[in-house]
Amino acid sequence: MMNYQEKVREAFEILEDAKIKVFTALIQVAMSSEYQDIDELLSDEKNFSFRISDFGHATDPNINTLHHVVRIMEIAEEEMIAWNGQNNLNLQGNG
After folding, report:
1. How far is 94 from 74, CA to CA, in rounded Å?
2. What is the pLDDT of residues 4-34, one digit of tens each?
3. CB-CB contact of 30 with 63 (8 Å)
4. CA-CA distance, 23 to 50, in Å (whole number)?
5. Are the C-beta atoms of residues 49 and 55 closer than 8 Å to each other?
6. 59: nearest Cα among 27, 30, 19
7. Exposed e or buried b for every residue in 34-66, given b needs 16+ CB within 10 A?
8. So what's the pLDDT on residue 94?
9. Contact 74, 52 (CB under 8 A)
């Protein structure tokens, strides 16, 4: 049976996985609509990465909604780290 801290650690990991999935969905939605020109420019790039701030000025309401969800998830992670500490969440070197 997991103790409290183990459950908190598991919850943090689930939150991180969910954030990655939502951010991936955000990129896919953006690349097929408002950011389609960028997608075409980057079609030859194999290792291009985005930051959440890259989508902060989008006008598409779906992109805005997904952007907001990712930002809220980031805030939740930051608060969990502040409350629990990186060591307790096994984040040594990840933060």
Report:
1. 14
2. 989 999 999 999 999 999 999 999 999 999 8
3. yes
4. 9
5. no
6. 30
7. bbeeeeeeeeeeeeeebeeeebeebeeeebeeb
8. 47
9. yes
- Please tell me the predicted confidence (pLDDT) of residue 95: 44
56-82 average pLDDT score: 96
Residue carrying structure tokens 């909604």: 65
Token digits of residue 58: 């989008």
The secondary structure element, H or E, covering residue 22 is: helix 4-31
pLDDT at 87: 84
pLDDT at residue number 59 = 95
**SS3 of residue 2 by DSSP:** coil
